[in-house]
Structure formats: C-alpha cells, structure tokens
Amino acid sequence: MKKYEYLIFDLDNTLLNFSMSEYYALKALFTKYGVIFNEETLAEYKEINHELWTKLEEGRIKKEIVLETRFTKFFGRKGIVVDGKTADNDYRKLLESRNDIMKDAVELLTELKNSGYIIYAGTNGVGRTQRQRLKNAKMSSFFTELYISEEVGFEKPDVRFFDTIFNQEGITDLSKVLMIGDSLSSDIRGANRVGIDSVWLNNFSDTYGEDSPIYECNSLRQIKILLKK
Known about the structure:
- The chain is α/β, with parallel strands linked by helices.
- The chain has two domains: 6-17 and 101-227, HAD superfamily/HAD-like (Rossmann fold, 3-Layer(aba) Sandwich); 19-97, DNA polymerase, domain 1 (Orthogonal Bundle).
- Helix content is 51%, strand content 12%.
- It has helices at 18-32, 39-57, 63-77, 84-96, 105-114, 127-136, 149-152, 159-169, 184-194, 220-228, and strands at residues 6-9, 118-123, 145-148, 177-181, 197-201, 215-217.
- Strands 3-2-1-4-5-6 form a six-stranded parallel beta sheet, with helices on both faces.
C-alpha cells in the first residue's frame, strides 16, 4: 500500500455510530409528539429523510429544506401539525446528548495519530451537532481540523467541499490524501470526483456500482491493518 500523509474521515457510521444515536433520539422524539415508535414508523421517517438527503447531495435542494420539512412531512402523515424548525431542534438536542461510537474507533484514531498521520474530519451535517457528538465521544483531539458541510457551505460529494479542505490546509499533492467513509454516494463518489484515493467502510456487506473505492474494508480494525501495510 502506498504511503499517505493526510486522512479525511467521515463521521456518521464511520467513527460515530449515527444509527444508534438516531434510533434513541427518534424514539424519544416520537414519544414526545405522540407517535408510536416501532419498525414501521421508523422506516417511514427514514424513507422521508433519505429522499430529502439524496436531493441535497444531488444539489437539488438546500439543507434548510431538509431540516425544516422532514418532521413536518412525517408527523403530518400522522395527522399531527408541527413546526419543522422546532421539531428538528428537539431532535437535535436529543442527538447531541448521545456519545455512541463505532467499534474500535478510538483505538484506530489513537494508532493513526501516534503513527504521524494528519487527520481531518470531513462530514455532512450540522456544525453544532457534529462538534458536540465528537466532544461527547472524547474524539475531538484526534483531528487537526473539522470540516462540516454546514460550515463549509457545500455537501459531499461536491468537489468544492474537498477543495475547501485542500485550500485551507495547503495540500497540493493529492496522491498523499485518503478519504475514509461508509457512504458510496457522498464519501466515495466525492473522492473519485476530486481525484483522491478512498477506503469504503462497508458496514453491511453491500456491493458497489459506478462509485468504486480504491480499498474496501468491513471494519475499522481492517482499516488499521490496511494502513499499517
């Protein structure tokens, strides 16, 4: 394996266990607004949310639309009228109280930091939420800088998200940069668009199509082994 100097880590479901945090935050939110929380209602919300985030990644809508309408749409289907901003803020507070992390995340970051890698976070999401969750997980100190789409102004896979990192960090040799993330549509597609290598953390033994990574691992432990070669 060739030598890299800069590692850009996605956060959600790469280092931070977003699926678990989301589950408990939504459970509390549904209860607050009087909706039964079960597999059916969870799947219904996720379908709405996924559709909106896909449109966001494709550049068809702004993030404000996602955050302000997903709960309005979901609760509206249940006959409940809510203010989208208020519901999202309630959800965000619940999400920000969590500190769920992926297995072996701290061990991996410790090893890589001690090995001399320069580590950045490159994540889609809301600034205050991602920063608080990293703080809760005691991971903030591993990163030289955090690049969060809300603060950057662009969402992965937009090349401008990555160009912001390169420009602000003075990175000119892109062969020294490696993107690590679980999402084919944002992490791997974005890396391919901008011309950097990538590791796909394939959490669910999925297959990929046109968004092909350079490397594929099924766990963070495998990523640690890969980077030590």
